[in-house]
Amino acid sequence: MLVDSPPEQRADTTPAPPTRRAIRAFGLLVSAVILLLVALASIAIGAKELPLDQVWHGLFHDTGTYGDVVVDARLSRTVLGLLAGAALGLSGAVLQALTRNPLADPGLLGINAGASAAVVTAITYFGVSTLSGYVWFAFLGAAVVGALVWFLGGSRGATPVRLALAGTAISAALYGYLQAVMITDDAALNKLRFWTVGSLASASNSTIAQVLPFIAAGTLLALGLARPLNAVAMGDDTARALGANLGRTRALAMLAATVLCGAATAACGPIAFVGLMVPHVVRSFTGPDLRWILPYATVLSPVLLLGADVIGRVVARPAELQVGIVTAVIGGPVFILLVRRRRTAQL
After folding, report:
1. Nearest 5°: CA angle at 16, between 12 and 18?
2. What span, in angstroms and rounded, lies between the C-alpha atoms of 205 and 50?
3. 300 Cβ partners below 8 Å, 6+ apart?
4. Closest-CA residue to 261 (of 233, 292, 301)
5. Contact at 8 Å (CB) between 172 and 164?
6. Is the Cβ–Cβ distance between 146 and 257 less than 8 Å?
7. What is the rounded distance in angstroms from the CA atom of residue 296 to the CA atom of residue 301?
8. How many CA atoms lie within 13 A of 168 on its CB side?
9. Nearest CA to 2 among 153, 226, 193?
10. 55: part of which helix (H) or strand (E)?
11. What confidence score (pLDDT) does residue 5 get?
């Protein structure tokens, strides 16, 4: 059941005191430094052990040796993790503001289901077998479902509850279609099961080039919606009184979330908990102001995704554990703890 946030949790659009702004800005800088360190770890650490001098050589002197090839692959993987993590975190934060539900994630509006259904259709009926082909079908599926949810939710008259109900209904139908196709087509099942787990292992320069324009456009749009979404988070009546255009804000927020999540899911498969947990954690120390939640989510979500990817490469050496599995293993207990602490604080 979705409910509006209590008054004390709604966005406060009044300017923060200078000291608080300085602390938040410093925290954002620290978060960026942490992201840089995690990105370097993602390049230096992997399923194959490499001395640090070979890692350094591979970064700056590409001579075609084994170490250089491994570092190139890790670099592409790290860049894709940065992009996908930022996209998932931003889309989750936008959807939580749009639905006024702190437990919302990209799966709530059927975006993941749309991407997955499009990929299985491409494999089964169009013979697509490469990741570069999956990307476009997955993105198209996410976009179509996002538009359908917006239409069924009432378009410009959409409310958070209508959008969530439309997304849930469409997700159920699409996952039913997905299971039916995979049961009757072994080839589709074998090709899809790796993608549906969620992984950065198939990262390439081609994949990055395909999703980068969409993630960049979605990021700019989402960050630009911080102030209007702050008004929407205060309730429809208050938002109208403040002069917010509810229909336009919700339409643009749906567009931003669909583009961001669709691109990330197309490239990596559906990865759970990043878009759900990171904005929720960020809100606990930034407060409800989306002018800070969105930048923090953009920086810290790749920290979680790349950190989980490094863990997956280390714990199963010489093989590796897909990042989607690691984020679920990490995210489940952490999120339960956060929810229990929040409930205890409200008692």
Report:
1. 180
2. 22
3. 31, 34, 35, 89, 278, 281, 282
4. 301
5. no
6. yes
7. 8
8. 10
9. 153
10. helix 52-60
11. 46
- Which DSSP string corresponds to 195-257? HHH--STT--HHHHHHHHHHHHHHHHHHHHTHHHHHHHHT-HHHHHHTT--HHHHHHHHHHHH
Answer yes or no: is pLDDT of 66 > 70: no
Give 200's contacts (C-beta < 8 A, 6+ positions apart). Answer: 77, 80, 81, 84, 268, 305, 309, 323
Q: Identify the CA nearest to 30 among candidates 300, 323, 228.
A: 300
The DSSP H or E segment spanning 306 is helix 290-315
CA distance 29 to 140: 36
What residue type is assigned to position 2 of the chain?
L
Q: Fill in the amino acid letter for 324.
A: G
pLDDT for residue 89: 94
* Contact status, residue 209 vs residue 332, Cβ threshold 8 Å: no
d(CA 295, CA 307): 19
Sign for the pseudo-dihedral over CA of 242, 243, 244, 247: positive
Q: What's this model's pTM, rounded to 2 decimal places?
A: 0.85
The model's pLDDT over 297-344, given as tens digits with 9 standing for 90+, comes to 999 999 999 999 999 998 887 888 889 899 988 877 877 776 676 554
Q: Which residue has the tokens 């990042």?
A: 323
The CA distances from residue 181 to 107, 116, 119, 169, 170, in Å, are 20, 12, 11, 19, 17
Q: Which of 40-44, 86-90, 119-123 is predicted with the least confidence, judged by mean pLDDT?
A: 119-123
Q: Give the type of residue at 98.
A: L
In a 3-state reduction of DSSP, which class is residue 65? coil
% of the chain surpassing 90 pLDDT: 28
Q: What angle do CA 233, 237, 243 make, to 5 degrees?
A: 80
